Amino acid sequence: MNTLILTSIEQGLIFSVLAIGVTITFKILDFADMSVEGTFPFGAFLFAKLISGGFSPLISTLLSFTFGTLAGLLTYTLNIKLRIKALLSGILTATMLYTINLRLNGKSNMGLFSYPSIYEGHEPVIVLILIILAVKMLMDAFLKTEVGYLLIATGDNETLVKSLGEDSNKYKLIGLMISNGLVALSGALMAQYQGFAEITMGTGIIVVGIASIIVGDTILRRNKLLKATTRAIMGALIYKFIGALAIDLGLAPTDLKAINAIIVIIFLTYNTFNPLKIKKADEYKVVEEAKC
Amino acid sequence: MLNIINLTKTFNPGTSYELRIFNDFNLHINKGECTGILGANGCGKTTLFNIISGVLRQEKGTVSLNGKIIDNLKENERARFIGRVHQNPSAGVSPSLTILENISLSDKKCQKFTLRKLINKQKIESYREILKTLDLGLENKLNTEVKYLSGGQRQSLSLLMATMNKPELLLLDEHTAALDPKTSRLVMEKTQELIKSYNITTMMISHNVRDAVKYSDRIIMLDKGEIILDVRSGQVTEKELLNIYNSRNYGSPLQEAV
After folding, report:
1. Do B94 and A165 lie within an 8 Å CB cutoff?
2. pLDDT tens digits for range B99-157
3. ipTM for this model
4. CB A35 within 8 A of CB A193
5. C-alpha to C-alpha distance for B2 and B52, rounded to whole angstroms
6. Which domain holds residue A189?
7. Domain holding A43: CATH number?
8. 3-class DSSP assignment, residue B35
9. For a pLDDT cut of 90, what percent of chain B falls above it?
10. I need a labelling partner for B148 at 20 to 30 A (CA). Which of A97, A247, B88, B193 fits?
11. Is the CB of A146 less than 8 angstroms away from the CB of B118?
12. Given A149, A155, A168, which is nearest B105 (Cβ)?
């Protein structure tokens, strides 16, 4: 049981980087970016390429983030410059990345046990906590800057951003690039953690990202002071833990994807039919009516 | 001030839905005046605003502001000298941000947005002062998200944000139409205070004839993209305006304002 807890914490931490990335597109920009499905393995394969090319684990990981941002640039180009719908742009990017991932190392599965990793010589969980703290603090600081607020405003109301004299597309580009960079970083961390990069590791990964956001928002709804990044991290951890618990209770690892989807369905249904929430909404309505 | 010369605009050109909304349209707006624009739906009022603010491009004709042709400027580039308040109270604000964050953003309007912190603690007091002029108690709600404000409060905030950098031209697109009569009057009075104290040239679309007569210096009535009436507001009464308006055989006659 102890290793199970540790493993789910470690994996949850890795996925929380993904969750923060998905938060930027889905929640802040209101942009359903499906390219994540390709960017996650892209990060893993990039790492494999770089580490086998002789780069240090740290440099390889950082470069995975940097090149990962290019996936965001591609989705942006398809969506804004070529005017393809956001959802389709993401899917097209993911499809292209599938081929790119296979081409990068010339194979669909690449073992990394013979190469060094950033976890080497330390407890993986400590390394991961440090990385996640760094990502979270950078993100939080960024969202408090002038540019960060314009990113939020772009997701909220593009007309306002234009009336402030700014090109809202610029902020979509920034958001998409950071988001995809973080997802690729998450993929690189996962490849090192599990010791291999594999072409199917991105399948259904968008569900993990969205699930983390939903779980984080549902469980921590009462606390209004929590930042979106904290919610994403907590969500990823709780979500991963519920999945691990299901496996511990005797379900086969092959059932994991179905379990993932079911967790999302349960949380979404809870949000819709929760009597507490419905009551609250009514109270709000009464207050609003009284105001008039 | 604003000069529109030989403006031509067609929607869906080349299709069976082709609609020519302006044909060699000319309009001159004087500096410091408030011009009320009346007309039925579909007569081209909002299209005119969209062309002036750069949302839509015309096929022919030029739009110039203070002698400078602005046709090649994008919507966000024109924001430097053109402010706009929309009918929808949420269109001028960022609902998920707080009042303070919204005001801080509009205070940076048309300057360079950098990686510095947006909220400047030293400026909070001055924002409070500006909000106090609205008389809605918003100065005590700085950290409330704008989505929790009422329509009137949101529209007043939009107005404030649109005029904060003292634009040369302010476009009011039925900005009180979504509000109840009392709030609408309040917002209209705030509007007058703001444009008078900053001396902003204003164009105001309204379906409320009384407001148009009361608050504007000049009244223009549009029909099918043409100016059918252009008078000083003192030269015409509310009733006369209503008669002209209704005599143009619109779908539904305009009622006297409540």
Report:
1. no
2. 999 999 999 998 999 999 999 999 999 999 999 988 888 999 999 999 999 988 999 99
3. 0.89
4. no
5. 9
6. 2-291
7. 1.10.3470
8. strand
9. 62
10. B193
11. yes
12. A149
Domain B2-247, what fold?
Rossmann fold (3.40.50)
SS3 at position A164: coil
d(CA B104, CA B106): 6
- A65-89 tens-digit pLDDT: 999 999 999 999 999 999 999 999 9
Contacts of B114 in chain A (CB under 8 A): 145-147
CA distances from residue A150 to A143, A259, B7, B114 in whole angstroms, order as listed? 9, 37, 34, 10
pLDDT tier, A276 (very low <50, low <70, confident <90, very high otherwise):
low
Tell me the CA distances in angstroms from A234 to A123, A127, A216, B20, B138, one per residue in order: 21, 17, 6, 56, 34
How many domains does chain A contain in total? 1
**Nearest one of A80, A121, A113, A75 to A94, comparing CA atoms:** A75
Q: How far apart are CA A278 and CA A275, in angstroms?
A: 5
B42 burial level (CB within 10 Å; 0-12, 13-18, 19+) = middle
A274/A214 Cα distance (integer angstroms): 14
Contact A161 B76 (CB under 8 A): yes
Nearest alpha carbon to residue A242 among A206, A276, A275, A211: A211
Domain boundary assignment for chain B:
2-247
